[in-house]
Write a structure and sequence with these properties.
Helices cover 49% and strands 19% of the residues. The chain is built from eleven helices and nine strands. Strand 8, helix 10 and strand 9 form a beta-alpha-beta unit. It is globular. Bound molecules: ligand C2E and calcium ion (3 copies). The site of one calcium ion (CA) has 4 residues, from strand 6.
Length: 272
């Protein structure tokens, strides 16, 4: 910096450059990790609230990097989307999760597998082909696979997504809206897309035992879903009081630390 007055600016600039460097490093590590398949999947069970039995597993990506340690998906997924690496990573998740579900089924446990899909995975228009191939290779029945989409996916590229969802629905693949309530206020898509369930975001579920308004909101979402013939999954159930309230409100399923966090294959098998 030539002038004193610029010091502040330079300091911010240095910080920004550092951030960009970190991001660049993270991107390089991510690219390497995708190439070397350094990812694993953790599985979080979903429970039927009335029977307290496991109905399915949600596959959640885990990345342990030798240099960076455990990198949370909230950090690397957006980066994988930005770089397009999510395409390859997404196929890996589908393959691995469907193969695992098939293996659990062969051991005598009937359960569904839920896989998170990001908007980018619809961009090339080949998601139905990718899913068909994975189902054929793993031998998993299409109705045992549920794809989780956020509201924003249904809003962007509306026709492209709708078309592919229809093809997948014909196969028997199911769809859930993830983080329901955090996206858009226009609910028109609920009747326009082929959906099977709504996953109520944990930001609403977290405080239902403490806050009457949050309870009213969750209650309303459950009524709405039921009137549309959709299942409801409450995310982030952490305590028995919340479970009681959800049951009373007519919620069908739940997921959360009250039962289990996302765990390894072996730990999940022990829960079955
Ligand atoms: P999500 O799909 O909403 O997944 C639920 C997240 O909440 C998971 O975090 C899970 O570990 C956490 N969670 C579950 N129960 C509780 C609870 O009772 N309390 C609290 N506080 N948290 C709970 P995770 O595994 O860190 O994943 C974060 C996000 O990363 C996911 O949110 C999803 O959007 C994304 N993600 C993870 N795996 C994949 C993937 O394979 N593909 C894509 N596209 N996104 C993924
Ligand atoms: Ca999800
Ligand atoms: Ca969610
Ligand atoms: Ca989320």
């Amino acid at each position: 910096a030539k002038k004193m007055g610029r010091n502040r600016f330079c300091w911010y600039k240095a910080e920004m450059e550092q951030q960009q460097l970190d991001k660049f490093n993270l991107m390089m590590r991510l690219r390497l990790a995708v190439k070397q398949q350094l990812f694993t999947l953790a599985y979080q069970p979903t429970y039927d609230l009335t029977t307290q039995s496991i109905t399915g597993a949600e596959a959640l990506l885990r990345w342990f990097d030798a240099e960076l340690g455990q990198v949370p998906p909230d950090v690397f997924i957006p980066l994988a989307e930005e770089t397009g690496l999510i395409q390859e990573l997404g196929i890996f998740v589908l393959q691995k999760a469907c193969a695992q579900a098939k293996s659990w089924q062969e051991s005598g446990f009937s359960l569904n597998i839920a896989v998170n899909i990001s908007a980018i995975q619809f961009k090339q228009g080949d998601l139905p082909a990718v899913v068909t191939k994975v189902l054929a290779e793993t031998g998993l029945a299409p109705h045992a696979l549920e794809l989780e989409l956020t509201e924003s996916v249904l809003i962007e590229d509306r026709m492209l997504v709708k078309q592919q969802m229809e093809q997948l629905s014909v196969l028997g693949v199911r769809f859930a809206i993830d983080d329901f309530g955090t996206g858009y206020s226009n609910l028109g898509y609920l009747s326009q897309f082929n959906l099977n369930s709504l996953k109520i975001d944990r930001s609403f579920v977290a405080r239902i035992a403490q806050n009457d308004k949050d309870l009213a909101l969750v209650d309303g979402i459950i009524q709405l879903a039921r009137s549309l013939g959709l299942d409801t999954v409450a995310e982030g159930v952490e305590d028995p009081q919340s479970l009681k309230l959800l049951l009373r409100a007519g919620c069908s399923c739940g997921q959360g630390y009250f039962w289990s966090k996302a765990v390894s294959v072996d730990e999940f098998s022990a829960l079955l």
